[in-house]
Amino acid sequence: MKAVLSLGSNLGDREAHLRAAIGSLGDAVVTVSGVYETEPWGDPDQPRYLNAVALVIGPADAGPRHWLGLVGEMERRAGRERDPDRRYGPRTLDVDVIAAWDADGTPVVSADPDLTLPHPRAHLRAFVLRPWLDIQPYAELPGHGRLLDLVRADPVAVDLAGLRARDDISLET
Questions:
Q1: Fewest 10 Å CB contacts: which of 58, 83, 105, 159?
Q2: Residue ranges of domains in the chain
Q3: Rounded Cα–Cα distance for residues 116 and 131 (Å)
Q4: pLDDT at 25
């Protein structure tokens, strides 16, 4: 199963948190986007984020829950603490499964509250779509269309101005 993972960090050594997350994925990583520094989304009273996207391929018999388990473990190792009063609050590491595809290329669609696929807000987030364009410029977000079209439309187009490419950081292993 192939998946796109979005990674972000705005607490502690942001770069080290992202590097450790990518490193923990090992051989599953096909490619990693560039890193972008972004304004916080949904809760402005916090530090800026470093964001990236990774394209990963897992074992043939793995389903979407395989990725959900891995990203949860990566967040725990980074010391992520969830504040129920700040859904979009600061975090050492945030990793989301954005979209997944079966071996035959069929998009996985899930309405499970623990793992909704594709991610229900990915089409609204410049910090997901712009890095994803780095690694798959002709990709489509299942159910929403081509990434290129999504980044050109509001509200994403407005948010693009707040992204700053961090060419001084590479997460490629």
A1: 105
A2: 2-165
A3: 21
A4: 94
